[in-house]
Each structure stands twice: as structure tokens, then as C-alpha cells.
Amino acid sequence: MITLDPKKLSSVEKQAYLQGAVGPRPIAFASTIDKNGNANLSPFSFFNLFSSNPPILVFSPARRVRNNTVKHTLINAEETREVVINVVNYDIVQQASLSSTEYADGVDEFVKAGFTKLKSEVVKPYRVAESPVQFECKINDIIALGTEGGAGNLIICEVVRIHISENILDENGKIDQHKIDLVSRMGGNWYSRANLGMFEVEKPLSTLGIGVDNIPEYIRKKTIFAGNDFGMLGNVEQLPGEGEIRKFITDNPEVAKDIEQKNIEQLDKTAKQLLAENKVLDAWKVLLAQQ
């Protein structure tokens, strides 16, 4: 067993050890607005339930380790004292991950990640329509835990409305833990699916994904693809060029045959399978070759 003194570790090392050891962690998908009414959406895995009466949720947007800056969510929470915490299940995990991309101030992550805004009843921030449970919250307090990179900011939220999809309820009107299909964060790129186990999602730390809004409409209209598929497609930094597409077609005779025969249904199935194998750029090549 190794023994470590946190004071002798870098911020990056401390974060890696802590996040790798403390998990799985539930995810607060926090929706806020700034003082001008612009929407912001971001996931946080420093999150949990701390009281049921009063109903209190606490999440923590930590200061960025690499440059000690703060996140838009924290700024908005300080300005407006309101937030909607949406839960993340498996159906939306790829889109939720995409929303963590550090887009410029004023960019709407609802749009970039392909989520639908729902008006809240009590607070101003929007709810995520695709989330199976949404908590409208008033912020009671914000506690800064430090001033250096990696320091947390505890946002103590009192739940004032709860919205639950009927699709996740059992015959007694209770939340069915299989139907809700929650996911949680582990260390690195790893997540845990509550009823199945671990899986990996590439985290967009240093890249700016094109976003679901920049996926061509003819692709977004294809019913074979779900939210997770669009989240993966939107997480690429740039689309493959014509030369890359031609080479892929040449190297894959079955795909070339389907293109020649205009077998769009089979091409979509091929792209879907490539996404399942995490071969996102190859999936893009199949989809773009249909044009």
C-alpha cells in the first residue's frame, strides 16, 4: 500500500486519486441562467442528497484545476440564486457529456447538446425535457471551500418543485430503479450504469465539439438514431473531409456497394453500429457519403 501526503501532491494528482477512489458519484445536471436571461447547462459529479425535510440537494462547481477559473454555473448561481437540477440517465449521458464542453460565454448548451427546454413553474432556469426527474431549486447558500484550483463551492439548494416522468414509475406510482436507469461518474472517462456496470465516455476537456445543432438536418431526422448517438456525433471537433470519406469507401467494399445501390437503410445501420463501437469518425464518413 502506498501512503500519500495531499500537501505534497499536485492539484491534478489529488483530483485523479480522489475521483478514482470516491465513486460512483451521482450527476447533477445543473441548468442556470445569467443576469441577462441566457441559459447555461452543465453536469457536476460532486453532488448528492443531504436532507429530505427540508429537501436539500448540494452540488459543487469546483474551480478549474488547470487555470483556477470559475464556471458559468457558479457565476449564475451567485447572481440569480436559482437552479434546476436534472438527473442523468443512460439515454442522455452522451449529450450530457457534450454539454460539459467549455463553450464560450453566451453559447447555449441546450442547443449545442440537442436538449429541449421546458419552462419551470417557480424558478427562471429551464428544465431539461429529456431528463426523467427535474428539481426546481432555490439556492439557500453558497460556501467557498478555497481559492486555489480544484477548490469546491458548495451550492446548497432547496427543492421547491419536483417533476417526474410517468415512464419511470412502477405500478404503485413509485420510481422504478430499473426504469430510471441512472448513471454516475467514476474516475477518468469512466461512468457506471446503475443496473449494468461500467462504460466509457470520452470527456470533451480540450476540444470544442461541433454540437448537435451543427449535425445536418437530414441526419437529425433519421429515427434510427437516439440522443446518445447525436451526442457522440456532436462531440467531434471537425468533420472528415472528402478525401477521408473516399478512402473509407474504397477500403470498405460493403459500404461502397450500399452507396452505389442507394441502400440508405443499411448505411444507417452501419453508422449506428460504428457508433456502438465508438468509431465516431467512421460513422460520420458513412453518413456524409449519403449526400
TrEMBL record:
InterPro entries: Flavin_Rdtase-like_dom, Split_barrel_FMN-bd. One of its GO terms (molecular function) is oxidoreductase activity, acting on the CH-NH group of donors, NAD or NADP as acceptor. The keyword Flavoprotein applies. Keywords: Flavoprotein, FMN. The keyword Flavoprotein applies. Belongs to the flavoredoxin family. This is Flavin reductase. It comes from Avrilella dinanensis.
